Amino acid sequence: MVGRCRHPGLWKMLTVAMCVALVGCLQAQELRGHVSIVLLGATGDLAKKYLWQGLFQLYLDEVGKDHSFSFHGAALTAPEQGWKLMAKALESLSCPSDMAPSHCAELKDQFLRLSQYRQLKTAEDYRTLSKDIEAQVKQEDLREAGRIFYFSVPPFAYVDIARNINSSCRPGPGAWLRVVFEKPFGHDHLSAQQLATELGSFFQEEEMYRVDHYLGKQAVAQILPFRDQNRKALDGLWNRHHVERVEIIMKETVDAEGRISFYEEYGVIRDVLQNHLTEILMLVAMELPLNVSSSAAVLQHKLEAFRGLRGLNKGSAVVGQYQAYSAQARRELQKPEGFHSLTPTFAGVLVHVDSLRWEGVPFTLMSGKALDERVGYVRVLFKNQAFCIQHERHWAPEQSPCLPRQIIFHIGHGELSHPAILVSRNLFRPSLPAHSWAEVQERPGLRVLGRPLSDFYAYSPLRERDAYSILLSHIFHGRKESFITTENLLASWDFWTPLLDSLAHEVPRLYPGGADTGCLLDLELNGGHLSFSQQQPEQLVPGPGSAPKPSDFQVLRARYRESPLISAWPEELISRLASDIEASALQAVQHFGKFHLALSGGSSPIALFQQLAMGHYSFPWAHTHLWLVDERCVPLSDPDSNFQGLQAHLLQHIRLPYYNIHPMPVHLHQRLCAEEDQGAQTYAGEISALVANSSFDLVLLGMGTDGHTASLFPQSPTGLDGEQLVVLTQSPFRPHQRMSLSLPLINRAKKVAVLVMGRTKRDITMLVSRVGQEPRKWPISGVLPSSGQLVWYMDYEAFLG
Ligand code: BG6
Q: Locate the Glucose-6-phosphate dehydrogenase C-terminal domain: which residues (predicted)?
C-alpha cells in the first residue's frame, strides 16, 4: 500500500503491462486454431495446374503464424488410384525463386505430410471425413478454427456434395465453414437463379465463395487499391469529362479444341465476358468506397454499379467464330457433315454506364479465341484537350501534353509479358505499394499498345503470383470482396441474358484465326452501336446464315386497312419511323412553336426510343411535350411502368425541359388508380390546358395480339366512345389496372402511327386487315383519325410472317 502511494506511476505501468500481456495471450489463444482444407476434384486439371500449388503457397505464407493445417484431397476415385494421381500433382510443387532450396525441400516435405487423399462418394464417406477431422483436432489438442471445401468439380455435382457437407461436415460452434465454387454458375439468369437457390438452401451467403480467377490476377486486384492510393490525382480525371473510352480486352491464341462440349453450350460471352470482363468493368466503373478494404463496402458499391448499366441490345454487340470451329464441333460432338455451329468464339460488346460519372463514355469489352496474340488489359484512354502547334520533333520527349494520355492495367502476356500498371508520363506519377510493386526497367524497343514503354510510369509486382494463390489466401482470410456474391452474380446475368437471347440465332462472322484474320474483326463505335469496321466479306465457307439479309429487300410501301403502310426489316423500319417523327416534329415546331407527342410503352417502341435518343441530334426536344398514351397502375419507378421505359431508353439521353414531360398521374394519395383520386380527369385537364383542341401532333400506338391498342382492350367498352379524354381500364394482362387515352381523343390527333413488330403479331395483322370498324372486338380497328392521318409501320415478320 505504502509502495503504491510512493510510486503510483510505476503501479499503473505495471498493471497496464500485465493487462496488455494477458490480452495478448488471450488473443494468441483466440487466433490459434486448426484449419482443414478439403479439395474436391483433387486429381482434376484445375487442381493439378493451379490449386495444389496455390494451397502450398498458402501454407508457405501461413506456416509458423497462428494456424495449423491439414489438406484433404478428395475425389470419386478409389483410395489407392486416387492417391497415386494426387501424388503426381504434388510432385511439381515449387517455392518462390528467392527461397533457399533446403528450406523449400523442408517445407514441401511438411506439406506432403499434412496432405492425404480420401475417396468421397457416399454420405458415409462425408461423415467419416468429419469424424476424422474432429478426432485429429482432439488428439493434437487443437482448437478447430474452420473448414474450407473447394469444389473443383463440374457444377452438376454441386448440389449432392453441398447436401453432404451441410448435413455432416459442418464444424462445431465457434469454427467457420467456407465453401468455394468454380464457374460456370449457370447459363443464363434463370439457371443461375436456380443453382443459387439450391446452394442457398445448404449454405449461408457468408459461407460461399464463388471464384472468378480474374479477380485474383495481380493487375486486376490492384485496380481498387490503385484508385484509392491515387485518389488525389484521379478525383478530377475519373469521369465522363476526361475519359474518352475504356477498353477491357482479353485476347487468346488458343482455340476451343478439346473443350467443345463445354464451349458449344457457353460461347465466349458466357465464358469470359459475363464474368471476367464484367467484374473488371465493375472495378473501373464503381464509385470508390471510402474504405476499399471493407469487403461489405466494396460489394455494395459494385452492386450499385451493376444497377447503372444500360441494357444491351443487338446493336451493342458483334460476334465472330474462327473458321475451324464448326469442323472441330462436328468431330468432338459427332455431328453430321452439314452441322454448322452458331456459337461465338469472338465478341465485342459496347457497354454504357448511366451515371453522372460515366454518361456517354463507351466501355468496350472484347474477347476471342484463335486471335493473333495472347494479351489481357484494361485501358482507360483520356481525352486530350491539348492543341499542339509545334511540330512533333519539338515535343518534350515522353511527357508532352500532345501525346496520348492513358492508364493501362496490363493483366498479362503481350509484348510486356507480365502484369503491370502503366500511367502516361503526361498524366501523373502514380503511387503504388512500395513493398510489393516496383518500377519496370526500361526495355529499349518495347512498345505497349503502340507507344514506347518510356512514355509511361510503369510498375510491376515484385513477385509475380498466380491468381489462385491470391484467391486462396483471400478465402483463408475471409476477404469476400474478391468473390462473386449471389446478388452480384444475378445482377450480371440479368444484364447479359437479354443480349444472349437476342444473339441466339445470330450468324457469327467467320474469321480464319491467328494472324490471317487481319483486320476482319476490327471494331467501330458508332453512336450507341458497335459494328465491324469492315464490310462482311464473302463467306469463307457457306454458313448456316443463308437467310435473306435486310439489304436484299427494299422498304415496301403499300396500304393496310386503306391507310399507308410502311414495311421493312426492323432496323430500317425503326429508322424510317424515327425520321418521320422528327420530320413531324420539325414541321410542328416551325408552325406552332411546339410539338405534342404521345408515346406508347411496351417492348416494340424501345428500339425507336433508342434510335431517337442516339441518332437524331436535330430533334427539337426543347420544344417537344411528351405525353403517355397509356400507363400501368404501378409506381412510376416500377420496371413495369411505361414511364420507366421512356425514362430508361429516351428521357435520360435527351434534354427535354422538365415541365414538358407529362407522366400519367396513376399514383396519387399513396394509392394507385383510385377512381376517387380523379387521376384520369387530371390528365385530361392537363391535355386540354396545353394541347390546342386536345389534338396531339402525333400519337404512337402499338397493336396487341388480341387487337388491343393503348390500354383499350377487347370486350371492355371503357374509352371506346363518349366524352372522356382519359379513362381507367382493366387489362386481361398483369398489372390489370390501367390508365389510357380514349379512342375519341386518339382520333383527334393530327397523325397516328401504329408500330407492329415481330412474328407473334402475324395472325392479328392478318385478321385486322380483313375486319371493318369493330372496336369492341378489336379496339385497334377503331383507330381512324377524324381529320388526321393514320400510318402503319410493320416489320416483315409481322406483315409477311
Ligand atoms: C477461363 C475460360 O475462365 O479463362 C477459358 O473458361 C479462358 O476459356 C481462361 O481460356 C483464360 O484464363 P487465363 O488465366 O489463362 O487468362
A: 226-515
Q: Are strands 789-795 and 751-756 parallel, antiparallel or unpaired?
A: parallel
Write the pLDDT tens digit of every residue in 124-133: 999 999 999 9
DSSP string over 330-366 = HHHHT--TT------SEEEEEE-B-STTTTT--EEEE
3-state secondary structure of 230: coil
Which residues have a Cβ under 8 Å from the Cβ of 291 and sit 6 or more positions away?
Answer: 297
Query: What band does 32 get if pLDDT is binned at 50, 70 and 90?
Result: low
Q: By the 8 A CB rule, do 223 and 280 touch?
A: yes
Active site (annotated) includes residue 276: yes
Looking at ligand 1, which residue's alpha carbon is closest to its atom 13?
A: 214
Give the ligand 1 atom nearest the CA of 413. Answer: 16
Q: Which atom number of ligand 1 is nearest to the Cα of residue 254?
A: 10
Sorted by sequence, the CB contacts under 8 Å of residue 455 that are 6+ apart come out as 398, 403, 404, 424, 425
Ligand 1 atom 7: the closest Cα is on which residue? Answer: 272
- Catalytic residue, chosen from 276, 474, 649, 708, is 276
Return all residues near 25 (Cβ < 8 A) that are at least 6 apart: none
Q: Tell me how far the alpha carbon of residue 11 is from its chain's centroid.
A: 62
Q: Enumerate residues lining ligand 1, CB below 6 A.
A: 252, 271-272, 376
**pLDDT digits 0-9 by tens, 592-629:** 999 999 999 988 899 999 999 988 999 999 999 999 99
Place of cell 386540354: 688
